[in-house]
Design brief:
This protein is an all-alpha fold. It has a domain of 59 residues. The chain is built from four helices and no strands.
Length: 87
């Protein structure tokens, strides 16, 4: 019998702390992804990164990036008509 079939799968997910704070952080940075909040037709994603770094200084650069990218993806899926395009 194949051993991999009987062994429990290891947790592949990373960024557990990011998962814990996601809902709170999403509420704070979601407005930066809105089409109506563009500046000179440029998205304000860079401000989302700054806000997350300021609010959660314990996060690594990679965790901040994962949080912002995941938040933007959720925002786009929930509000496709209002999401900023590009980036």
């Amino acid at each position: 019998m194949d051993q991999s079939a009987t062994e429990p799968q290891a947790e592949r997910r990373k960024y557990h702390h990011v998962r814990e704070i996601f809902d709170e952080a999403y509420e704070v940075i979601a407005p930066f992804f809105a089409r109506e909040n563009r500046w000179g037709n440029a998205t304000l994603d860079h401000l989302a990164y700054r806000v997350v770094r300021d609010r959660y200084p314990e996060l690594s650069f990679e965790e901040v990036h994962v949080l912002v990218v995941a938040s933007k993806r959720v925002y786009t899926e929930l509000r496709p008509e209002g999401a900023a395009s590009g980036g």
